[in-house]
């Protein structure tokens, strides 16, 4: 009973888990949907994920090896390939906030499909660890998720939202 008082079962974490589950299901089924539907739904998911991620409580664990990666390289590569194919000419965008930009003489190009897969990978790994129900694993997974939010998937959300905003209105204008 006292396990439900654990940080991993806070309102913020449970809401985040629900959003993650929906997002992961969405990404896994995205290859079967039309491009327009995908980008319109992604336009709504990305800010929600970022918001819910920014509200997560800070975990004190520092990663002692209790979590594991559930998204294999093959799973990642399959999803990336399918999303890249679906997005076609809309997949790539210029990123000015990339740390490598200061060393580059040419524009830094990112991929919406790659960033979506990066976000998916961190969120899927988190909810897979969460499902085990062990407080120590959940706490470590939460620590890792918060760390990766700061360094990776939070930045990916911000960058890809700008690109998706552009694609949504490009796709709409093509239809008129």
Keywords:
176 residues; mainly alpha; two-stranded antiparallel ribbon; 5 helices; 2 strands; 3% strand
Could you characterize what this model shows?
The relative contact order is 0.19. With 176 residues, the protein is mostly helical. The model has no long low-confidence stretch (mean pLDDT 89). The protein has helices at 11-29, 35-54, 73-87, 112-130, 135-175, and strands at 92-94, 109-111. The N and C termini lie far apart (58 Å). Helix 2 (35-54) runs antiparallel to helix 5, helix 3 (73-87) runs antiparallel to helix 4 and helix 4 (112-130) packs antiparallel against helix 5. The protein has a two-stranded antiparallel ribbon with strand order 1-2. The protein contains 5 helices and 2 strands. The radius of gyration is 17 Å and the shape is globular.
Mean pLDDT score: 89
| Rg from alpha-carbon coordinates | 17 Å
Low-confidence stretches: none
Class from secondary-structure proportions: mainly alpha
Distance between the termini: 58 Å
Give a short overview.
It contains five helices and two strands; from the N terminus they run H-H-H-E-E-H-H.
Topology (elements, then pairings):
Layout: H1 11-29, H2 35-54, H3 73-87, E1 92-94, E2 109-111, H4 112-130, H5 135-175
Antiparallel strand pairs: 1-2
């Amino acid at each position: 009973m006292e396990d439900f008082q654990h940080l991993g079962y806070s309102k913020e974490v449970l809401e985040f888990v629900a959003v993650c589950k929906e997002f992961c299901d969405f990404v896994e089924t995205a290859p079967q949907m039309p491009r327009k539907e995908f980008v319109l739904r992604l336009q709504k998911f990305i800010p929600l994920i970022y918001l819910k991620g920014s509200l997560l409580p800070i975990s004190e664990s520092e990663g002692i090896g209790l979590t594991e990666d559930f998204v294999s390289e093959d799973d990642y590569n399959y999803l990336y390939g399918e999303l890249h194919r679906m997005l076609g000419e809309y997949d790539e965008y210029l990123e000015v906030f990339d740390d490598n930009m200061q060393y580059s003489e040419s524009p830094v190009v990112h991929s919406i499909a790659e960033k979506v897969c990066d976000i998916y990978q961190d969120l899927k790994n988190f909810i897979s660890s969460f499902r085990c129900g062990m407080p120590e694993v959940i706490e470590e997974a939460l620590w890792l998720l918060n760390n990766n939010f700061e360094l990776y998937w939070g930045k990916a959300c911000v960058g890809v939202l700008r690109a998706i905003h552009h694609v949504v209105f490009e796709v709409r204008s093509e239809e008129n």
